[in-house]
Amino acid sequence: MESNVQSALQAIEQASDNGALSGSAKENIRVWLTESRYSDYRQTVIDHINDNNWQTLDDVFWTIIPFGTGGRRGRMYPIGSNAINDRTIGESAQGLADYVVDYANGKTDLSCAIAYDTRHQSRHFTELCAGIMAAAGIKVYLLDDYRATPQLSFAVRHFQCDCGIMVTASHNPPSDNAVKVYWSNGAQILPPHDSEIISRVMNCEEIKCMPFDEAVSKGRIEIATEEIDREYLAVSAACGFPGPRDAKILYSPLHGVGAEAVLPLLKHDGFDEVEVYGPHEEKSGDFPNVPGHVSNPENLAVFEAPIQYAKASMCDVILATDPDCDRLGVAAPISLDASMDWDTLDGNQLGCVLTDFVLSKRSEAGDLTPEHYVIKTLVTTEMTRMIAENYGVRCVGNLLVGFKHIAAAMEQEGPDTFVFGTEESHGYLIGQYARDKDGAVACLLMSQLIAELKKDDRSLHDYLGDLQRKYGYHKEKTVSLFMEGSEGMVAMKRLMQAFRDNPPKRLAGLNVTGIRDYLHSTHTDIASGKSTSLDGPAGDLIFMDLEEEGNYVAARPSGTEPKIKLYNFTRLSPTESSDLKHAKQALQERIDALEKDMRAFAQLNS
Ligand SMILES: O=P([O-])(O)O[C@H]1O[C@H](COP(=O)(O)O)[C@@H](O)[C@H](O)[C@H]1O
Ligand SMILES: [Mg+2]
């Protein structure tokens, strides 16, 4: 062994002994220093060791970057098993290619659709993935300009591909990137394919990549952007409903890809007054003009400046999509009187108004049977279920977090009777053309709803208020607690364990009456101490039910960022909700108290 590798190995031993490196980082660095598959990166690793760059080394090596809720996602750094770089992206594509070839069992005309967003290095990683697929004999249909995640999901289905790759880290910070990996049905990978792909990724030895230009000239990469733009427009436009189109819309792509999907769709549907909010228009991985560079419609601050602009230019609504255009955020005037106060809607509220809008249209058309269904996840408001049941359709809702679970439920229940899919984190899907959430079609539905309401002189908040009076006022709030690096992971595990071993007894002045632990599939009744088995999927998600019906909290580690998500759910009955103002205030107080108590518990136990 070369002497510089020898001394680097000694140095990491020492660093681990004196606490500068975690044990897992030391082990992963050792692999990168000694195994031939990492030889291209060896010198850079040694340079970091020689520079005593221990914190960085620990951050980028303490684990092997996992496949989370939405793909393999993380911070970009040239080296590291826990970073996004040519090696981790390359092995992801190689592992996928190897599995697709194995799974095909001799079938030869294999193909993969690939698209990418506006992030730093997205185009670079795209060419790498495309070259790897081409070298594996898998034909690539490439969207060669910035395109939306739902367009990629559609492309996989349209070309009947065996798999797909979307290079994007969605709304994560500018430092991050990722691949979202799709199976032949257009949904992100799930069992049994996911574990098979992951095992090939982890055991990937050599990465074989054909130079991009060569693969294009040999026809192994086909540019499919025009065809997908045209066909996607046709299928997405078919998702809407007839009705008025008079609405003045301000649209923000939050520096991402959305304009390419949203603008043609709204124009085609007859919306003539759509303006792109100028400061958010530039396609840039720095997300320069959104507060804190957090390009996420969940970040209410992104709406502050656009609201001022929209008020001044008399817009009816602001629509914002996240950088890969699979999430929708909305701000709208509270009422259509002269006061012109605006407010945003959260992901659950948007899901409810869209669910009701879609069901009301389908119901008017006599197009619903008891076989029809909407889908939501376990952390999505129960108001969705009430709306669905009111229209006589089913709600499939016992699902883990992640739109891929909604896609799987759709396959299982049968796509023909699928009406709408909705999740708390601003994801919505209508129709069968894709198997992932679609921010563009959500924009279309929202625009149609706004135009209908405008005709009747009603605001979106009036519409939501009617639903809240009918089904009871619901107020939910998701709180994220960031815990970074190897220490953060230990803290997250400790906190999840504390919820299991010693859960809070009271929250917001209400007794905790039951614990639903999806990891161990148990329901524990606090009063009797008895545990029974819990129906539903298995995953690291725990609910604490409170003494008032419909009031509960949930906790889980995010699968896209290093954080614990605390989901707080409150509700009042319809009778208690007749005075909306009063209900709103009461639940705001309860939500604030829940958040305070949950934060305090987390502080003590992480
Ligand atoms: O980031 P996106 O827009 O791809 O969205 C992704 O992340 C969301 C939040 O996941 P988590 O709670 O694990 O962070 C998921 O609900 C969603 O289905 C997934 O596609
Ligand atoms: Mg996204």
- Count of extended strands: 24
Helix-strand makeup class: alpha/beta
The DSSP helix count reads 19
* Helical percentage: 40-55%
CATH class of the largest domain: Alpha Beta
Mean pLDDT over all positions: 97
Gross morphology is: globular
CATH topology of the largest domain: Alpha-D-Glucose-1,6-Bisphosphate, Chain A, domain 3
Largest sheet: 8 strands, antiparallel
Count of the domains: 4
CATH architecture of the largest domain: 3-Layer(aba) Sandwich
**In percent, how much strand structure appears in the residues?**
15-25%
Distance between the amino and carboxyl termini: 42 Å
Radius of gyration over C-alpha positions, nearest whole angstrom: 25 Å
Enzyme class: isomerase
GO molecular function: magnesium ion binding; phosphoglucomutase activity; phosphopentomutase activity
GO biological process, one term: carbohydrate metabolic process
Protein name: Phosphoglucomutase
Can you characterise this structure?
It contains 19 helices and 24 strands. It is of the alpha/beta class and 606 residues long. Strand 15 (418-423) and strand 16 (427-429) form a beta hairpin. The chain is globular. The protein folds into 4 domains: 1-62, no CATH class; 67-228, Alpha-D-Glucose-1,6-Bisphosphate, Chain A, domain 3 (3-Layer(aba) Sandwich), CATH 3.40.120; 238-471, Alpha-D-Glucose-1,6-Bisphosphate, subunit A, domain 3 (Alpha-D-Glucose-1,6-Bisphosphate, Chain A, domain 3, 3-Layer(aba) Sandwich); 473-605, TATA-Binding Protein. The site of 1,6-di-O-phosphono-alpha-D-glucopyranose has 18 residues, from loops.
